[in-house]
Amino acid sequence: EVQLVESGGGLVQAGGSLRLSCATSGLTFDDYAIGWFRQAPGKEREGVSCISGRDGMTYYAGSVKGRFTVSTDNAKNTVYLQMNSLKPEDTAVYYCNTRDTWGQGTQVTVSS
Question: 8, CA 20 to 30 Å: which among 24, 30, 84, 102?
C-alpha cells in the first residue's frame, strides 16, 4: 500500500521560508513522479510542483517558479518542497500526491 505523509507546515511571515516534506512508503521511488498540490479556502486544488523519481525532471506552476524548489532524497524515499519568499497568497493546505494516492495535507499560513 502506497502511503504519503506530509510535514513541515506552519505559520510564517511574508518573505519567510518553509520546507515541506513528503515521506513515501510502499512504492519503488524511482518508478514514480510525486506532485505537490495546494488548496486554499474556497478555491480548487491546484498543482504546484512535480518531480520525477526516475530522472529528477521538475515542473513548477508559474505562480511559484523561482521561489519554490522541489527535490528528493531517494535514500529516504522523501520529497521536499523548499518554499522561499512566501506570500500571503501561498496560504493553503499543501498535499503531496502520486497516481491516486494523497497525503493528509499540511497547513501553510503566510501572514502579511
Answer: 30
Identity of the amino acid at 40: A
**Residue 62, CA distances (Å) to 57, 59, 99, 105, 110 in order:** 16, 9, 22, 22, 19
pLDDT tens digits for range 2-46: 999 999 999 999 999 999 999 999 988 778 899 999 999 999 999
pLDDT above 90 covers a percentage of the chain that reads 87
**One-character DSSP codes across 3-67:** EEEEE--EEEETT--EEEEEEEESS-GGG-EEEEEEE-TTS--EEEEEEETTT--EEE-TTTTTT
Cα 61 to chain centroid, rounded: 12
pLDDT at 31: 84
